[in-house]
Amino acid sequence: MILLVREDREYLRERGDTLETDLGVLEIPEDATPGETLETHLGEQFEVRELRGPDLFNHLERTGAPMMPRDIGLVVGHTGIAAGDRVLDAGTGTGVLSAYLGRVGARVTTYERDPEFAEVARSNMAMAEVTDLVDVRVGDLAADLDDVVAEEDPFDVLTLDTEDAPAVAARADELLVPGGYLVAYVPFVEGTRAVVEAARESLGEVETFETIQRRMDFDDRGSRPGTAGVGHTGYLVFARA
Q1: Angle, CA 109 vertex, CA 105 and CA 110 arms, to 5°
Q2: pLDDT for res 56
Q3: pTM (2 d.p.)
Q4: What domains can be seen in the chain, in order of their start residue?
Q5: Which InterPro entries match (predicted)?
Q6: Helix 115-127 / helix 96-103 crossing angle, nearest 10 deg
Q7: What is the DSSP letter of 172?
Q8: Which residues contact 42 (CB under 8 A, 6 or more apart)?
Q9: With contact defined as beta carbons under 8 Å apart, do 132 and 108 qualify?
Q10: Which residues in the chain belong to E strands, given as ranges?
């Protein structure tokens, strides 16, 4: 997949596809390369860009509220997830987190209870070109814990974005390698406290952060934080085996 960009317009297409807009028809070459400029039959230009993580966030099909890039950055930064790591995830949703982790080279097994959501997530993994690294399973990790513990080797990181996160966190030591990390993304304070208390039963080094970010505005009048946009997104709980 590549991006075709012109000012405030952005289209996601395959090489060899045809783009039809009010600016004309563009036949995309099979060998289109990032940085190249392509023209429609009306002479309107589009720049070719390689698909990257933030582009995935903007273009993946949504089945709910996805984890924001800033939260994913904290997950990677605090756990050091890298190529070759094995990640167990619960609450796939759109699959944004799984896609990001797959693109850094981690091998992800992710559980989604809704079959339709899981199918959308598989399609999104194909768009992100990580189908060989991300295994989207239909199921409830909390309900399948005994089987996972018995059948799977321990994981390097366990990520949770689901209502039953406390039940999984309480047994995280059975799922993780020594030194492995638990990460839970929780939207409400009550749920966050429940995860913290559960994590303390089996793990150490439990830390919790609220993720708040403000965009800065710079104009002729002066400089200040922006007055619009999402500040709070959720809470991140980290613990270590």
Answers
A1: 115
A2: 78
A3: 0.85
A4: 2-50 (3.10.330.20), 55-240 (3.40.50.150)
A5: rRNA_Ade_Mease_Trfase_CS (IPR020596), SAM-dependent_MTases_sf (IPR029063), TRM61_C (IPR049470), tRNA_MeTrfase_Gcd14 (IPR014816)
A6: 30
A7: G
A8: 23, 24
A9: no
A10: 2-6, 9-13, 18-21, 24-27, 37-39, 45-50, 86-90, 107-112, 134-138, 155-160, 176-186, 204-212, 216-219, 222-225, 232-240
